[in-house]
Design a protein that fits this description.
Blueprint: E1 6-11, E2 14-19, H1 30-45, E3 51-56, E4 61-63, H2 79-86, E5 106-110, E6 113-115, H3 117-124, E7 127-131, E8 135-137, H4 151-159, H5 161-170, E9 174-175, H6 176-181, E10 187-189, H7 194-206, H8 211-223, H9 228-242, H10 246-256
Parallel strand pairs: 2-3, 3-5, 4-6, 5-7, 6-8, 7-10
Antiparallel strand pairs: 1-2, 8-9
Length: about 280
């Protein structure tokens, strides 16, 4: 499929997936849905792609959510499709939002409004960087439209149940600074700088050994909300799988020999915030 409503771009080891309908605030219609499914499937399968960055085109919107003018085209309507969707056999309404097995890091560069399904796509990421003019909200509340792309599940996991319920029930819109205070975003940057900052962070992550990032993300995603004993079992399963990779032996060898990034001859450190001696 030729991409027309998103941009899919490889920038070295970083993959950029960009909503590309700025004239309608990057809302997601039927074609956008199909393109997103293909894009995320390609990223997941591409062994050379280490980190994904998702953002919107223009300077007004990350994404305003579903294209309501498309109406029934974006939702299942037949009994068989509804049943398949209920069973989890469909990727989502606005793209593959129900996928939970992408264990590579994902960063959202929120460059404007992230409303309804757009907020849900921001929550699809592991890390969110927002521009100072960005706003977030379950604005579909006023139209009696429910969240269908992970918002009721991911938002409480990110900011806590109480805060999430207030936003979900009221539809209140929050600005970037409040989003940072409640933990929805990790950093607020000037207008026009979120993609640059996200790419910088993505490239840093690409420079780290990847297998342990994947197994740790998998353990965190699969274990979240489960009883501690089951979460620890999943963690052990993921860690023990990592033991078969040559990278872990190489990493241990470099540590023992004091040959690692935070012990450079010029005294510099790679790990953000680390203090030595």
């Amino acid at each position: 499929m030729e991409f027309k409503e998103i941009i899919y771009e490889k920038r070295g080891e970083v993959t950029l997936i960009q909503f590309n309908r700025p004239e309608v605030f990057n809302c997601i219609g039927p074609r956008t849905h199909k393109e997103l499914v293909q894009a995320w499937d390609s990223f997941r399968a591409d062994e050379s792609a280490k980190v994904a960055v998702i953002t919107g085109s223009g300077d007004k919107a990350f994404s305003s959510g579903g294209d309501l003018k498309a109406g029934a085209e974006v939702v299942p309507t037949t009994p068989s499709e509804l049943a398949a969707h209920n069973r989890g056999e469909r990727p989502g309404i606005l793209g593959p939002s129900r996928w939970t097995d992408i264990y590579k890091p994902i960063i959202a560069a929120v460059n404007g409004v992230a409303y309804a399904g757009g907020l849900e796509w921001a929550c699809f990421a592991d890390i969110r960087i927002a521009e100072e003019h960005a706003t977030f909200g379950v604005t579909c509340r006023r139209w009696n439209i429910g969240l269908a792309d992970g918002g009721t599940q991911r938002l409480p996991r990110i900011i806590g149940f109480g805060r999430a319920m207030e936003l979900i029930i009221t539809g209140r819109v929050i600005d970037a600074e409040e989003a940072r205070r409640i933990g929805l975003v990790t950093e607020v940057v000037p207008k026009g700088k979120s993609l640059e900052k996200a790419m910088e962070l993505a490239e840093f992550i690409c420079g780290l050994p990847q297998p342990a990032i994947h197994t740790d993300k998998e353990a965190a995603v699969r274990g979240f909300g489960l009883p501690l004993q089951e979460g620890l079992r999943i963690e052990a399963e993921c860690f023990n799988r990592l033991l078969t990779s040559p990278e872990i032996m190489e990493g241990a060898k470099r540590f023992v020999e004091r040959d690692h990034p935070d012990r450079q001859k010029n005294g510099s450190s790679v790990t953000p915030g680390i203090r030595r001696g």
